Amino acid sequence: MRYAYYSGCTLHATAREFDLSTRAVCSRLGIELEEIPDWNCCGATAAHATSHLLSVALAARNLALAETQEADLLVPCAACYHRLVTARKEMSENPHLRERVVRIIGREYRGRIGVRSLLEVLDHLDPERLAAGVVRPLRGLKVACYYGCLLVRPPAVTGFDDPEQPQVMDRLMRQWGAEPVDWGYKTECCGAGQGFSNEPVVLKLVRDILATASRAGADCLVCACTLCQSNLDARQGHVNRVYGSDFRLPVMYFTQLIGVGMGMEARELGLDSLFVDPRPVIRALG
């Protein structure tokens, strides 16, 4: 099974652990990732608020590059996935926009490949194939699966899970032996895009998500977005100072937990680079 691979900017920088764990997990599962050459930023969080044409063109150039590999494009990050799949849909429905974008990027684009979230790809694997990869089941670990506001919305664009009660990450965690908790903030926005311009609102959003997950009995949060992970992980100390709380809830990428269940070491998965250290929770599993 081969995919063109779009890592995006943050997976080579502040979210390097997402790239590490994605490559490690896919390798174990026999998923071949071929990074698209000379990729560029997809424009997540900034371009679409500045220029609609720019936001489509940035994503379209990556799609055109991926077409040369003749394989669907696999995207781990929810924010990147959202921009790429949105651009693909808009160009398929608007020939005039597509013509303008093709002139801008200077590359042919035929719309012949799909854009797949990594969660979507794993959800469609043979369950027996997934089960064979589990060597250290996550039994006893209660996880709050956090999808954020971009991964499954709008359903007319993404379409691979329920936009209000998504289950794909929950199913994956169960296959690895963990217990997803029932909570109501799966798709609530964490405010990452407003982190500098409206910090008080962001701190409240983060506090509410952490508090709801904690009340549900979660040992950790699991997510699929670099913006969400950074926001929920790095801001816990600030939230505690502002609200007098004492949150120490690990926030991991779903690929990191899958890697733990595959018997991989913490450093191999980048678990030692998170703000709230998840290793005590992992060690408690034995």
Order of helices and strands: EHEHHEHHEHHEHEHEHHEHHH
Reported CATH architecture of the largest domain: 3-Layer(aba) Sandwich
Number of strands: 8
Helix percent reads 40-55%
Q: Average pLDDT value?
A: 94
Q: Largest sheet, described in full?
A: 4 strands, parallel
Unreliable stretches, pLDDT < 50, 5 or more residues?
Answer: none
Beta percentage is 5-15%
- Number of domain units: 2
Given the structure, what is the number of helices? 14
The third-level CATH topology of the largest domain is Rossmann fold
Order of strands in the sheet with the most strands?
A: 2-1-3-4
Task: Tell the overall outline.
Answer: globular
Broad CATH class of the largest domain: Alpha Beta
Distance N to C terminus: 33 Å
Class derived from helix and strand content: alpha/beta
Radius of gyration, in angstroms, nearest whole number: 19 Å
Brief overview, please?
The chain is of the alpha/beta class and 286 residues long. The protein has helices spanning 16-28, 47-50, 52-67, 78-93, 95-105, 118-123, 127-132, 168-175, 199-215, 226-234, 236-243, 254-261, 266-269, 279-283, and strands spanning 2-5, 32-35, 73-75, 115-117, 142-146, 179-180, 220-223, 251-253.
